[in-house]
Amino acid sequence: MNFDSMSILTIWTAIAIYAGAFIAYALDLGKRSQVASDAKFGTADVLERELVGAGVGGSSSVVRGAGSAGSDAATTEAAPRFVMARIGTALATLGFLFHLAGEVLRGIAAGRVPWSNMYEFAMTGTLLIIAVYLAVNIWFDLKFLGTFILGLVVVLLGGAATGFYVQVVPLSDPLKSVWLVIHVFVASLGTAFFALAFALSVFQLLQARREAKILAKAEKTGPRFLGTLPGSERLEGLAYRFATIGFIFWTFTLIAGAIWANDAWGRYWGFDTKETWTFIIWVLYAGYIHARATRGWRGSRSAWLSIVGFSAVLFNFTIVNMFFKGLHVYSGLS
Amino acid sequence: MSNSRSETAAPKKKDDRSTDPLRPSDHVDGSGPDIESPRLGVVGWLRWGWRQLTSMRTALVLLLILAIAAIPGSIFPQRMADPNGVTQWKADHPDLFPILDSMQLFDVYLSAWFSAIYLLLFLSLVGCVIPRIKHHAKALRSLPPRTPVRLQRLDDHRESTRTVTGSDPRAAAEQAVAIAQKQLRALRYRVERYDDARGFSVSAERGYARETGNLIFHLALLGVLVSVGVGGSFAYTGQRVVVEGTTFVNTLLDYSSMNRGRFVSDDALAPYRMTLDSFDVTYQPYDPGKASSGQAGDFSANVTASAPGEEAHKAAVVVNHPLGIAGDRVYLLGNGYAPTITVRNAKGDVVFHDSVPFLPQNNATMTSLGVVKVPDGLPKQLGMVGFFYPTAAALSTGAFTSAYPDLINPLLTLNVYAGDLGIDDGTPRSVYVLDPTRMTQLTGGKTGVKSLELAPGETAQLPDGMGSVTFDNEAPQSAKDYRESVKRYVSLQIHHDPSEQWVLVFAGLAVLGLVLALFVPRRRMWVKASVVDGAVRLEYAGLARGEDPTLAAAVDDLLAGHARLLDADGGTAAVPEPEPSVAEPVPGNSPEAAPTSEDEPDDSGRFDTLGDR
Lengths: 334, 613
Ligand code: HEM
Known about the structure:
By secondary structure, chain A is mostly helical. Chain A is 72% helix and 0% strand. Chain B is 27% helix and 28% strand.
């Protein structure tokens, strides 16, 4: 058994564990709905509070060390501990270790960094998404994103392992460069942050809808687990933070790519299809950052831009890599 | 996040605004929409138009339009990136092509409409940034604003009370503020004291680098655009095919194609010379079971270069490692085989002898196509279209293919045409294309005569006794195989662009500015001390300008640090209460105006509560 087949095995193991984590997280959301409906929701006061982001019951776990009014309310009730979410995170961590092992084994098998074709890009990109998700959870409790993130990773990694797998082949000459190490890695890192921002923006939209319904005193206010999540403004703030970090990495990716293109192709910019899409994504996120600072665009409208931005990232990775003609013919697929 | 709320909560005098970053009026932090409708008259309308152009909304919308406008260029082939693709598209869609071409969809990034979008965007940027620079320059020189009267109205507000150990509570209060002033200065705040009859206070502000960074970022983008625009006029790019053993001289005449900027004069090229001594390439071993079989790599064009006034020296042009010479960069773009072909007439005199570059039709197998034109020396002009197979293998149909890209079993097949090459009237013709319209095909195809098939060293007779063709073997006499039997050629690109460095510098500045603008917190802090019932009441408050997730933690840290310093100073002592931070109602204020931090309902929406570590 060679390193590459060992890598394949660990990757599939990781996918299976991730799928388990996904299920645990999904059960967690179900559990949250329960908690949210068990909590006393009648009084306007509670509604107000949770509107402002200190969710009933959720706040002690969502907002650690929150010194605000909401957490007082939460500590007087028994704070639910979201066991399923913890199981989900434990499984995600375990899956990550297998994933990392698969990545390293592929690197050993190839004798180079394992990110030089689509199969490997997907492997590395999803690894970083999980890494960033787990790391961020050390600071903020964002386990409510687990279903979303793990679902995304299972689909992307599973899809890549089935659809994009290619044998290890030597690097083509243009890829023999330190910039392969830097440019692709930073791009994947930026993608990971954009993915988190994207997930937060989706929840932000859901939460904003729910808040509007609560204010309108509507009967039905949508999925109940939202009641245990931070308010839309806080979700927006977090999404913005991750998007800005991603944006800085992306800016660097753009520049590093131009430097590399100047060495490999004889010009630093030529509107090659992949360059074009990297540029489009950059401009979209610049638009998102502006929108957050523009009256009338903050809130749900800017969230849509974050979603469009990440859709463009995925489009760039899949459709552009596979079907658009250009100099970046590194999918490894024929 | 809740700046707008803080804004209203913080009572502001006009001069307070002078240190606030200036924002377009529709910025969330801005002064609000201009309700004033344009006065009739040209000036009024112009001013209104300018304000629209330099608004956040316009910048945002232009950014989004720019993103959308860039898309078609990735769908349709572009002349600048893929001219052959455009030709192909035209052939495939002859009806649609003229329509799309008139919309400049094959030159998107040079098109009038694309240019209009980014020029408007940058005009907006200039209009937006200039007043902000002026304003920021002033802010950098002005003092932190006066302490608001009601600090407790701010979101991030803390209070504590300390007993006085000495006899003079006012002196103790003043000392506490003096200590806070030192503390804030050590935290790199700009500080200013505002004392009055009611108490002492220090006002502090930091994070001017945030706005500086933002301005650097936007200006750097402008710098990139200008560098690219101006740089293009001084740049040139040329292509040239060089066969092993031949020499290339950097003069306009010696290029097969050349693009040059407006300000590149005819004599701008430094006349250096480069001889291609050899071309190296390695191929992965033949193994049909492996994806890597036959993959080529490690290309290296080994040259002898001599710049004017310099010793000739050996150098290599390698992918990713262009060769720098006389301010130019030389790139290796492609490579191929250049079979050496000799044509003799019926008498045996040489009428053609050259190594002819063949274009690879398939990079994996290096099956290549080339054209030989013999205009003189034979009864009729002669043209030959040839296929070259480095490792020839016969298909079941009898046609040939190449099984491997290296020279294992090289074979050259030639279809011979006689007649008029169409080159005498001066029409430029590609050397890679034969126009057969006024020629008769003599071998291959439907002629019924077999194409000429030659291995290196072999000679074949031309039809009709016109003469002979030889495929010369270039390998040394001692060679045992065909590996060196055919010369290789490289296609080089020579590029000169003095603006590259500038683009890089501005791009670097943009990143630097971006990091500052996004991560330096801009905030104000106030510490106020007053004497209440013989004790010192301390108030702390912070206000963020822009996104500042760590403000609350910063106020907490300030309070804790200050308490430690006061303890060390000894002029006051902490009240031995379990919760010293719970504020007492402020005398003279109604309870509504002074909510205690406990039931402060306004602690909303900020994610600074998440900003703990
Ligand atoms: C080439 C087009 C532009 C790009 C790519 C761009 C990009 C950005 C980015 C990435 C930021 C966030 C970083 C920071 O806060 O400094 C930003 C902020 C900002 N930009 Fe631009 N910008 C462009 C044009 C403009 C224009 C035309 C205006 C004026 C209308 C403008 C006004 C601002 C302002 C006021 C901010 C600060 C927003 C805040 O308070 O958070 N920008 N821009």
